[in-house]
Amino acid sequence: MKQPLKRIIKLLLTLAVLALLFTQVDLKTLLAVIAKVKLEWMLCALLLSVTMVVVRWFNWHLLVKAGLGETDCKETFASLLGSMSFALVTPARVGDLSRVAFLKSGRRAEASGLVLVDRFIDLSVVLILGTIGMLVFFGTKTLPLLLLANIFLFVGIFKLDLFLKLGARLLPHKKIQTITHDAALGLSRLTLKALAVNLSLTVLLNLLDIVSLYVLVRALGVENFKAVVFVYPLVMLSTLIPITVSGIGVREGTSVALFALFSITKEVAFNATFLAYLINSLAPALCGLYFFRKLNREN
Fold first, then answer.
1. Between 20 and 30 A from 204 (CA), which of 23, 63, 75, 198?
2. 129: pLDDT confidence band, cut at 50, 70 and 90?
3. How far apart are CA 250 and CA 217, in angstroms?
């Protein structure tokens, strides 16, 4: 299927999901709830967003430094924010792989392996949190599948370089073999300490995300930290379903359904989740457009 047609279909699906969602959520009530937002809590949410961007950049910077031996702060910052703008419109944040485009050309292939392990670790943390949430909501029926997914991801994290080297031997195309081999080379330089630091900072980022969502729920006049803790990872997992633009509609619909189990209104659930998307994803991505446009001009 051609890319323009895929984009049109995804846009139509996004509109369809939103239309369905708005049959369940009253728009007037939605606006009334957002109009009463508590500004002091919104300020806290904005400060948390800036903090998360800094931690995310620091995490990526340390990983690149460990894998490539040297790096520049400005380069890794541009790499992170620039890729966020591209990831915003790609399924399951595949656009994060564009981070390598913002690094020096001689290091891009090796850096691609670092992006993969960073995404693997992030997905593992979300899956672990999601496993806890699903156990609470759905019981032990989902446990075997989720444990298997977690084991697979952790093996991937610590043995990803071996998988890439194996792939380099099996793939028939010489250029792909070279890229895969270089990616494995970047990964092979990572020590257990570097992976542990990345994992720790990723856990911290997810905890900050949970706190951020809680702050936004508080800004809308509701106090229920337990609900946020269990709902957040499942909402994040729902965004991996690549049927709408940037997960819009799917994320909010999942939030509305899950928060309802804690007697939190649809309007608060929708607004809190959508505000979290605007502040923590869209705003940094829009800032990243500067670096994306700069990259296009240079090329």
1. 75
2. confident
3. 19
Q: Which residues contact 37 (CB under 8 A, 6 or more apart)?
A: 219, 220, 271
DSSP 174: H
Q: Look up residue 227 and give its DSSP letter.
A: H
- Rounded distance, CA 255 to CA 266, Å? 8
Cα Rg, the chain, nearest whole Å: 20
Measured between its terminal Cα atoms, the distance across the chain in Å is 28
pLDDT at 195: 87
| C-alpha separations of 276 from 136, 151, 252 in Å | 23, 30, 10
**Amino acid identity, position 150:** N
CA distance 15 to 249: 8
Question: Cα-flanking dihedrals φ and ψ of residue 121, to 5°?
Answer: -65, -45
Asked if residue 255 lies in contact with residue 270, where contact means CB atoms within 8 angstroms, the answer is yes
> Pick from 130, 126, 118: which is nearest to 197 by CA?
118
Question: Which residue matches tokens 């296009």?
Answer: 296
CB burial of 92-109 (b: ≥16 within 10 Å; e: otherwise) equals ebebbbbbbbbbeeebbb
- At which residue do the structure tokens 């952790």 appear? 154
Q: Which amino acid is at 44?
A: C
CA pair distance 243, 14, nearest whole angstrom: 7
CA distance 58 to 154: 22
Average pLDDT rounded to a whole number, residues 283-295: 80
